[in-house]
Design goal:
By secondary structure, the chain is an alpha/beta fold. It has 2 domains: 224 residues, Periplasmic binding protein-like II (D-Maltodextrin-Binding Protein, domain 2, 3-Layer(aba) Sandwich); 96 residues, D-Maltodextrin-Binding Protein, domain 2 (3-Layer(aba) Sandwich), CATH 3.40.190. Helices cover 49% and strands 18% of the residues. A 6-stranded mixed β-sheet has the order 2-1-3-10-4-11, sandwiched between helices. A 5-stranded mixed β-sheet has the order 7-6-8-5-9, sandwiched between helices. The protein is globular. The N and C termini lie far apart (67 Å).
Length: 340
């Protein structure tokens, strides 16, 4: 009898382990950047908010330093969902023939054109012959810079003009400012304020000025992009993920002091260095956390990107770029207004 009990116990233990393993076999792979504009991801991961909503579904996270890296991971099947800038999201949608879609907004604002105090730039005409950096050719800030230059009749050197527009990583922009090898940079918080605090920079223009006539100054900086195949196969997982995103968004908007501390702690953990208080505060003031991807700004960004030659020879059709159905389901259940 004792032997039977032991055998039954071992069988039950193995069955329990098998069931437990099966319940954890599902996972969602989430990508994000170690940046203040990705604060929902930073807080949601560090405080286990995503995992709480996902339950038995495992959360696997990957941290990236640039949009193209994240998009490559999506295309390689190594990611399911990612916090990313609008232009990389648009590029992924176009190049995949609609395989990736925007399922929520995340962050608005935060970008500026910063110039060196001693670069001799007082007006738009002074940019002739100057060296301007953007984080990456074709990224969200790069396209905005190109459009502003075009609007001010400033030609790039490769198009017969005198303005040098250079794709330079944010950290390198800081170094080159200090060496006086860069005159200006169109980038996003917190790098805008680091250039001001650490490299003798000043804001020449905030990007919101580029958007005043179209959106009153608002524009998308970060969205959530997902594999359409994953969304269709696992709508419940996406719903739980978006519920976590909603919770972290509400937390960031209503508990600013605690939220700021958590964000800066996570930045230090991921990058080895927290942001200086003044840089952090000024950056936080310039961004808005949201669920609305601000379609009108993204559609305009796509139009601008096409005009600048980054989306092929035919202007892309974007009618299915957004799938906000699950987000709106979450909002409806909470009694909140839907996102159009």
């Amino acid at each position: 009898m004792n032997r039977l009990k032991i055998v039954f116990f071992i069988y039950s233990l193995l069955l329990f382990c098998a069931c437990k393993k099966e319940s954890h076999s599902l996972k969602v792979r989430l990508g994000y950047f170690p940046n203040i504009t990705h604060a929902q991801a930073l807080v949601g991961v560090s405080q286990n908010i995503f995992q709480k909503h996902l339950g038995q579904v495992l959360l696997e996270t990957k941290v990236f330093n640039a949009g193209p890296q994240a998009i490559e991971a999506l295309f390689a099947g190594a990611l399911d969902v990612v916090y990313v800038g609008p232009n990389p999201a648009i590029n992924a949608y176009v190049k995949s023939n609609g395989a990736f879609k925007i399922i929520s907004g995340s962050c608005l604002g935060g970008a500026s054109l910063v110039v060196r105090n001693d670069a001799g730039i007082a007006g738009a005409g002074d940019f002739n012959g100057k060296r301007i950096a953007t984080p990456q050719a074709g990224n969200t800030q790069d396209i905005a810079a190109r459009i502003w230059l075009r609007n001010n009749r400033l030609k790039l050197r490769e198009k017969g003009g005198t303005v040098h527009l250079l794709p330079i990583a944010n950290s390198d922009q800081l170094t080159l400012f200090l060496k006086k090898e860069l005159d200006a940079a169109w980038t996003v918080a917190p790098w805008t304020h680091r250039l001001i605090q650490e490299a003798n920079g000043k804001i020449f223009m905030k990007e919101e000025n580029l958007w005043k006539d179209l959106t009153g100054g608002q524009y998308a900086t970060v969205v959530i992009l997902a594999s359409d195949q994953f969304v269709k196969a696992h709508p419940k997982i996406i719903k739980n993920l978006l519920q976590a995103h909603m919770e972290t968004t509400d937390f960031l908007k209503s508990n600013s002091k605690e939220a700021k501390e958590l964000v800066n702690q996570e930045l230090k953990k991921l990058t080895g260095k927290s942001l200086a208080p003044e840089v952090f505060e000024n950056s936080f003031k310039e961004i808005e956390f949201t669920l609305d991807p601000l379609k009108v700004s993204i559609q305009k960004q796509a139009q601008w990107s096409f005009q600048e030659g980054f989306l092929g020879k035919k202007e892309p059709e974007l009618s299915t770029l957004f799938d906000l159905s699950i987000l709106n389901e979450c909002l409806k259940e909470k009694g909140k207004g839907l996102v159009n």
